[in-house]
Specification:
five-stranded mixed β-sheet, alpha+beta
């Protein structure tokens, strides 16, 4: 059996509407939204009494997807520090290629995004930065300049 593709990355968020607005501002599109609540969901994720809302977001080229989920039941568990640094074990970050990193940062700041450091130049190839978005999600941006 051969791996076909990576389908999506799932992220649990505290506020689904805020996360959807953030990733929409970034340029992703809502592919669909659903309320998840069924014995099938319980069996699939290994929890009892699952009740959640989810939104599937896709990049404009259709190749990258994020599944954003807000759990209503069972209760959401905290992941330790509310704003873990980039070197914390676990999902590190999601990176997106953008045309204009300064414009993207300005637009995402209106949705609460904060730079973790600064926009840094890697040789004459890229400008890169890390931002913290909704629910503490770290988003990296890369603008190709050379």
């Amino acid at each position: 059996m051969t791996l076909q593709r990576m389908d999506n990355v799932g992220i649990v968020v505290e506020d689904l509407d805020a996360a959807v607005a953030f990733f929409t501002e970034l340029g992703m599109e809502v592919e669909g939204k659903a309320r998840i609540e069924s014995p099938f969901a319980d069996r699939a994720v290994g929890l009892e009494g699952v009740r959640s809302d989810m939104a599937m977001m896709r990049t404009p080229d259709g190749h990258g997807k994020l599944e954003l989920a807000q759990y209503h039941a069972p209760a959401v568990l905290g992941g330790g520090s509310p704003n873990p640094p980039p070197n914390t074990v676990g999902l590190h970050r999601v990176m997106f290629a953008v045309d204009d990193i300064d414009d993207t940062i300005a637009r995402l700041r209106t949705h609460g995004a904060e730079l973790l450091g600064e926009v840094a130049r890697y040789k004459d190839i890229y400008r890169l930065c890390y931002l913290r978005g909704p629910s503490g999600i770290i988003v990296a941006l890369a603008e190709q300049i050379g």
